[in-house]
Amino acid sequence: MAVFEGNFHQDPASLRFGIVIGRFNDLVTGKLLAGCQDCLKRHGVDINPHGTQVDYFWVPGSFEIAMVARQAALSRRYDAVICLGAVIRGQTPHFDFVAGEAAKGIAAASFQTGVPVVFGVVTTDTMQQALERAGIKSNLGWSYAMNALEMANLMKQMRHELTIPPYSYVEEANPALPAPTGEDLLPGQKTGEVNQA
Ligand code: INI
């Protein structure tokens, strides 16, 4: 039998990452991103957005992160997707909704696609606490990048050693869209034609 464990040194230059970042509280998320990039770069990943290894997706806030992360994972382009956001309790009565939906959605994106999707949404009571986690004391962005490197490598090893149907989760998560029915049709469109609008 075997022990499977991700490592941080096995050809990181061959890995591809998608990073989804919430603009809300960008004072914090920008710093998380900088920490994340620093870690990836120092492990040999080319972080240039015009290069071949990392794509960046900016979204309005943490609530939107999961949807974009799921689409990115479904593309099969990435070995891991890293989600960066900051939800601060003091700023909103709907903290629990935004944080809860982000957590649930990000977990679902990972389960449904079989692609590691790293939960890098910082949830704190105050801006001060968030900033402490985004560079003032330590930078969790660095840790999230480590998590992504480890999981990407672990999944690579597992795909190599175990028989995992590569696209089963994707097909389950993304069944072929049904033909439009009467209610979905645009004026003049017949059943069976795909909506272009
Ligand atoms: N989004 C965040 O990322 N962090 C927050 O603290 C936050 N607050 O405070 O409301 C927040 N709200 C925006 C939300 O993520 C969506 O972008 C918005 O509701 C539109 O869907």
Small ligands present: 5-nitro-6-ribityl-amino-2,4(1H,3H)-pyrimidinedione
* Name of the CATH superfamily: Lumazine/riboflavin synthase
Task: Give the CA-based shape.
Answer: globular
CATH architecture: 3-Layer(aba) Sandwich
Mean pLDDT: 88
The total of beta strands comes to: 4
CATH class category name: Alpha Beta
Contiguous runs where pLDDT drops below 50 for at least 5 residues: 192-197
User: CATH topology, which one?
Assistant: Rossmann fold
- Structural class, by secondary structure, is alpha/beta
Spatial arrangement of strands, main beta sheet:
2-1-3-4
Strand residue percentage: 5-15%
Biggest β-sheet strands, sense, barrel: 4 strands, parallel
Q: Helix and strand string, N-terminal first?
A: EHEHEHEHHH
- Gap from first CA to last CA: 53 Å
Total domains: 1
Rg from alpha-carbon coordinates: 19 Å
Task: Bin the helical content.
Answer: 40-55%
Number of discrete helical segments: 6
In short:
The active site is at residue 94. The protein is α/β, with parallel strands linked by helices.
What's the helix and strand layout?
Layout: E1 17-22, H1 26-42, E2 54-59, H2 62-74, E3 80-88, H3 95-113, E4 117-124, H4 127-133, H5 140-161, H6 168-173
Parallel strand pairs: 1-2, 1-3, 3-4
Helix pairs in contact: 1-4, 1-5, 2-3
This protein binds 5-nitro-6-ribityl-amino-2,4(1H,3H)-pyrimidinedione.
Describe the protein.
- The protein is α/β, with parallel strands linked by helices.
- It has one domain: Rossmann fold (3-Layer(aba) Sandwich).
- It is built from six helices and four strands.
- It has helices at 26-42, 62-74, 95-113, 127-133, 140-161, 168-173, and strands spanning 17-22, 54-59, 80-88, 117-124.
- Strands 2-1-3-4 form a four-stranded parallel β-sheet, sandwiched between helices.
- Helix 1 (26-42) packs parallel to helix 4, helix 1 packs across helix 5 and helix 2 (62-74) packs parallel to helix 3.
- The longest helix is centred in the C-terminal third of the chain and has 22 residues, at 140-161.
- It is globular and about 50 Å long.
- The termini are far apart.
- The model is unreliable at 192-197 (pLDDT under 50).
